[in-house]
Amino acid sequence: MLRNYIKIALRNLWKDKSFTLLNVLGLSIAFTASLLLGMYAFFDLSYDQFHKNKEDLFQVYYAEQKPGGQEVATSMPVPFAPALQQELPNIKHISRYISDHALNLEAGKELDLNLIFVDPDFFQMFSFETVLGTKEVLKDNAQISITEETAQKLFGKTEALGETLDLLINGRREVFTVGSILKDPPVTSGLRFDVAVNFSHSPNYTENLDRWDSRNHSVFIQLNKDATASDITQSAVSFTDLHYKGNIEDLKRDGAQPNANGNYLELHLLPFKDIHFADFKGHSLKVSRAYPYMILGIGLLILCIAGINFVNMSIARSAQRLREIGMRKTLGAAKKQLFFQFWSESVWVFMIALLLGIGISMALESSFRQLFNTPATLSHLSSPVLIGVLVGSFVVITFIAGGYPALVLSKLGTLKALKGKLDLAGKNRVRNTLMVVQFSIAIVLISGTLVLGKQLDFMRNKDLGFNKSQVVAVPLNGKHANRQDVALLRNELAGKPGIHSVTASDNNLGLGKDGSTYFSRMGFDYKGRGVHTNMLVVDYDYPETLGLHLKEGRTFSRSYSGDSLSIVINEAMARELQEKDPVNKQIILDDSIKYTIVGVLKDYNFQSLNKKIEPISLFMKSDWDLYYAFVKVAPQNMAQTFESIEDAWKRIEPNAEFLGSFLDENIDRTFKRERTMTTIITSGSLIAIILSCIGLFAISMLVVTQRTKEIGVRKVVGASVAQITVLLTKDFVKLVGIAFVIAAPVAWWLLSQWLQDYEYRIELQLWIFLAAGLLAVFIALVTISFRTIRAALKNPVESLRTE
Fold it and tell me: Is the pLDDT of residue 217 over 60?
């Protein structure tokens, strides 16, 4: 029996090649898109999930009640972790964490290394496999851990225990012994590094050993198995009351209101498995997996459209097999046998499409990875659980999409089938509902494409308050002291054509090629209340090189010898100080040092565009290091000028990699997620439109086949081609109109929610959704008209002869 089902199924599929081809084409496109999108989404969802202790790992953060509302942050003071472990129960392991860069100084092996400062417990907590050596290596301050890839690059072998490394770290030269070799961190690790060093070597460690007012690192903890995050939060109240007593008193003095628990400062724990999806927005913590789930959702929507097409096309094709169904029933075929016969044909179509989809996705995998700049591979779908889910999903989709047409056909009456009549009157509701769903999905995706494109274009072209097109940022990663490199670079470029000025600071704008970001904040009392500001240490000519606009006062000048005790602030900082005329006002830092405000800059976006502009203060502190040089160039011959900067750098630091880039490139790198979202939704919209066209084409074939005689009669009595075309297409246009009425509010709500993540965003306008609806109508008309016009032009004699 089974052999007979398969035999007849293959024969019928081969007999009607056009329908089979359209079905296989649509489904294989859908399977390909879904597999590639699923690969990307599951890769994103798998971040940091490989750690064996992930359920017990947390990052510590605090929520502080400010006069303007709650603020959250993850930066902690140096004595915080030891005190927390000593005073609170249920903490099994704890480690501080700072990410930094170091330069290997051995001649001929100069290499910029990604370095982390951590405590000895770090490798007890996280599942970074040790190949050689022990997990407790960092208990010896003179020993370090390196990855296999780093060992191979530096020593030409992975068995490098006992080798020495001469590193330049923040201007300090230190020699270490390799105490352990680690397997390279998985690509799904949020903690990536080449070298791990004991935290006691971190910048300003000794100076900050007993200071609770200087915060510069993260803290991770592992709880005992029977402990929960809420236990730590409750038991930490006395800890914060003791160690942050001065902070809490200042908050009360400044008018802050306690939270619902009656506390002014609370410690909280963020599950480590959520860190990749966490966003600290200053006032709140948001953990959202909406991005990968959105990508999965688009893949499912594409499969949904393909399934709808299959159902409609199967019913359209069934009109040609009515007499076959009637004959089978006359000869005694049961409904069950007919159902399995038609369902088996569906299974074959789905199987062929799935195999093609897998093959095409494997062929496109490399191009997909390059387009979306992702290390995701199809192997991320190879876990037993995922394979089970995918197989189960395939069975369900096949049963639903293939089973419904099979059920409809198997229930046809014998006489109607023998007469060749497929009476779908009253059942068009199902077909029409499916088409409305199909076009609603397409309209939502088209709307998303238009809105995301406009938001991305808005962010790229927004005036950020500084010159991003004529400034080159160069990370200072050479052997010399960074300030010395800035002076040498300034001398090398002096008088060169196209070079306007050179300056430096301790932070970049946007995201440079080195991939590092760094922010420093400080708080102090001003006129009896607490204020906070971002800090930026700069060199001379910084505002002029960056094109920052001076609102009042002056910037730093070599003519003023006392500018080491001067600061320049932005308008947001002036508002924080509550000073209408802040120039010449003084602030006191470190309890005794007075700084004079000499100028006010207009606000500029020194952070990402999903944050409002915060207070920032520029200092000329000679005892703080500089990490980035900035070169302003003329708008003419910019490519040639960029090469001149690179040549100058290579003369200064011949063994250090040149990582210079224009600031507009740096800014554009911060839009990686937005670019990816736009590309994915645009691709999804295009696929949805293609699949919808295939489905519409099939339905138009069904309608034309059912109304062939009617078309002939109307032509005989004088109906024109245009009248017949309008008659056949108006019902479809109505369905698209209904889809627009449903989809437009849904799209508006979804997109307005997404835009809330951005402090600077476009306004949703009605024309965007009208354009999406009109585009859907246009596509529908073009697709349907191809078949209806052909039917309207047909000789009425041939139409009237149709049985």
Answer: yes
Residue type, 52: K
Taking Cα atoms as reference points, which of 169, 146, 176, 142 lies closest to residue 159?
Answer: 146
- Please give the single-letter amino acid code of residue 176: F
This prediction's pTM:
0.79
Reply yes or no on whether the pLDDT at 9 is more than 60: no
Q: Report the candidate in 70, 51, 54, 52 with the shortest Cα–Cα distance to residue 62.
A: 70
DSSP string, 403-442: HHHHHHHHTS-HHHHHHT----TTTHHHHHHHHHHHHHHH
What residue type is assigned to position 716 of the chain? V
CA pair distance 340, 764, nearest whole angstrom: 50
Nearby residues of 687 by Cβ (< 8 Å), 6 or more positions away: 29, 30, 33, 302
Is the per-residue pLDDT at 394 higher than 80? Answer: no
The gap from C-alpha 731 to its chain's centroid, in whole angstroms, comes to 41
3-state per-residue secondary structure call for 536-593 = EEECCCHHHHHCCCEEEECCCCCCCHHHHHEEEEEHHHHHHHCCCCCCCCEEEECCCE
How far, in Å, are 4, 315, 324, 326, 730 from residue 8 at the CA level? 6, 18, 12, 16, 38
Quick one: pLDDT at residue 424?
A: 47
**Which amino acid makes up residue 783?**
T
Report the C-alpha gap between 246 and 256 in whole angstroms: 14
Q: What are phi and psi of 643, to 5 degrees?
A: -65, -35
Q: What band does 426 get if pLDDT is binned at 50, 70 and 90?
A: very low
Tell me the domain boundaries of the chain.
Answer: 2-44+291-459+672-800, 95-202, 471-669
| CB-based contacts of 359, cutoff 8 Å, min separation 6 | none
Contact 105, 151 (CB under 8 A): no
Q: Using alpha carbons only, how large is the chain's radius of gyration in Å? A: 34
The arithmetic mean of pLDDT across residues 541-567, rounded, is 89
Candidate from 127-141, 418-432, 452-466, 694-708 with smallest mean pLDDT: 418-432
Q: How much is the average pLDDT of 765-783? A: 85
Block residue for tokens 């406009």: 454
- Asked whether the beta carbons of 118 and 196 are under 8 A apart, the reply is yes
Q: Of the segments 131-140, 371-380, 383-392, which one has the largest average pLDDT value?
A: 131-140
Tokens 């500089």 label which residue?
A: 626
The CB-based long-range contact list for 229-237 (8 Å cut-off, 24+ gap) reads 229/58, 229/268, 229/269, 229/271, 231/90, 232/58, 232/88, 232/90, 232/91, 232/267, 232/269, 233/266, 233/267, 233/268, 233/269, 235/88, 235/89, 235/90, 236/84, 236/88, 236/266, 236/267, 237/263, 237/266
Kindly report, residue by residue over 82-123, the tens digit of the pLDDT: 999 999 989 999 999 998 888 887 766 778 888 999 999 999
Average pLDDT for residues 37-44, to the nearest whole number? 89
3-state secondary structure of 272: helix
pLDDT digits (tens, 9 = 90+) for 182-209: 999 998 898 989 999 999 998 888 888 8
Cβ atoms of 245 and 44 closer than 8 Å: no
Q: Which residue type does 538 have?
A: V
Structure tokens at 495: 């008088």
Q: Which residue has the higher pLDDT, 487 or 339?
A: 487
pLDDT at 31 over 80: yes
How far is residue 251's CA from residue 258's CA, in Å, rounded to a whole number? 9
Q: Which of 685, 755, 45, 149 is nearest to 374 (CA)?
A: 45
Distances (CA, A) of 426 to 400, 423, 431: 21, 9, 10
